[in-house]
Design a protein that fits this description.
119 residues, alpha+beta, four-stranded antiparallel beta sheet, two-stranded antiparallel sheet, 5 helices, transferase activity, Acetyltransferase, transferase
């Protein structure tokens, strides 16, 4: 991840869900705390950082999706049941592309183990 995802003490985390359920949490929060909030609900669509003092709102869905993919990389594939914001993220789609290339190469050239097997 390029920069740590952080909700400062003067900011609010807003998690928007598919079933009109929205969750708001005040900061400070780091990426792991945000992920645990997201994991506790179903069908998360978008995640926002709201700064009331500056009257600003920033969509941080992509950054949280990147943290989610990094945390769960060993358990993710094209059949994984993930939140909408993860499914639509660049990080998740890059992972799926890498897995598809690896599968293709394994079928064409054999797995790493098969290629490096000694007679």
């Amino acid at each position: 991840m390029n920069k740590p995802v952080l909700i400062n003490s003067d900011e609010i985390l807003l998690v928007s869900c598919d079933d009109d359920q929205n969750i708001a949490e005040s900061g400070p929060l780091d990426a792991s705390q945000i992920l645990s909030i997201v994991d506790g609900v179903d069908d998360v669509i978008q995640i926002f950082r709201i700064n009331p003092s500056e009257k600003s709102c920033e969509d941080i869905s992509e950054e949280i999706a990147e943290a989610y993919v990094e945390k769960n990389i060993e358990h993710l594939d094209e059949n994984s049941n993930v939140h909408d914001f993860v499914r639509e993220s660049v990080s998740y789609n890059d992972l799926l592309d890498d897995l598809a290339k690896e599968k293709y190469n394994d079928e064409v050239y054999g797995t790493y183990e098969e290629q490096n097997r000694y007679p």
